Amino acid sequence: MAGTAQMSLLRDLPFSLCQAGPEDVAGVGNYYLQVSGHGEPQLPLSTLYFVDSHGQIPSKVKNPDYDWIKQSQIDWFKRTSQALRKSRDSDVHQNRSYISLAFMHIPLPEYADSDLTIKGGHRREPTEGPSLNSHFYDALAKEGVAAIGCGHDHVNDFCALRPQQKHEELQQGSINPIQFGPWLCYGGGTGFGGYSSYGEKRYHRRSRAWEIDTSTGGLKTWKRVEYAKERIDELVLVAGREAVATPEFIDGDKHSLTAQAEL
């Protein structure tokens, strides 16, 4: 079934908020939702971006390979993010604790990076994403998105930070602070129609929950697992609008790191 036909069905479901998005942007389902506060005026407190990550494509580079986020999608996101920020900046009642998130199905190439600081979960299978990197992650980072959520790899369920400044740059004597974000998170495999193991171990179905504190600019996440009553792998991702990085090893030295870039 074509993407437009799928979207037509999804839009008509009860409580659905999904949209087809602009026709001049590649794919179907590039849209955003704003979360507003109670009372008057209804201030925007958070923006949720949704992006069509397309699907599998023929490739001589690797098998399977996947289509990449197109330039028209990146341009749409940047225009939208900048326009929303300009509108907030002009509002005397603006909320200074604004948090933005982005969601897509297929993970960006950065999910496969070897220098990720992985927290609150595990990599149980290789990341399967596009071989071509169109650098959508860079646009998300520049626009201050706090976290990215994806699916596709059924038994990966971690959140991770990727240094924006590479370790080899530190070795060259750079004095700039180490900057992190946005967080790269997997949603966890939820459906019963796909595989639930990789290797010999069974993987229990799970789903990621997100909690935004609009009064402090905080972002928390955890997962719910089938057959379990308690939430698991609870993480504070953002505190005071800064990505929180727990201690990691760099070149053999242990550091406690907090992002310097304001999200």
Structure characterization notes:
The chain contains four helices and 15 strands. It has helices at about 5-10, 70-90, 135-140, 165-170; strands spanning about 30-35, 45-50, 55, 65, 100-105, 115-120, 145-150, 160, 185, 205-215, 220-225, 230-240, 240-245, 250, 255. About 30% of the residues are buried. A hairpin with a 4-residue loop joins strand 10 (about 205-215) and strand 11 (about 220-225). It is globular and about 55 Å long. The chain has a seven-stranded mixed beta sheet, with no helix packed on it. A four-stranded antiparallel beta sheet has the order 10-11-12-13, with no helix packed on it. It has a two-stranded antiparallel ribbon with strand order 3-4. By secondary structure, it is α+β, with helices and mostly antiparallel strands.
What topology does this entry show?
Layout: H1 3-11, E1 31-36, E2 44-50, E3 56-57, E4 65-66, H2 71-89, E5 99-103, E6 117-119, H3 136-142, E7 147-150, E8 159-161, H4 167-171, E9 183-186, E10 206-213, E11 218-225, E12 232-239, E13 242-243, E14 248-250, E15 253-255
Parallel strand pairs: 2-5, 5-7, 7-9
Antiparallel strand pairs: 1-2, 3-4, 6-8, 8-9, 10-11, 11-12, 12-13, 14-15
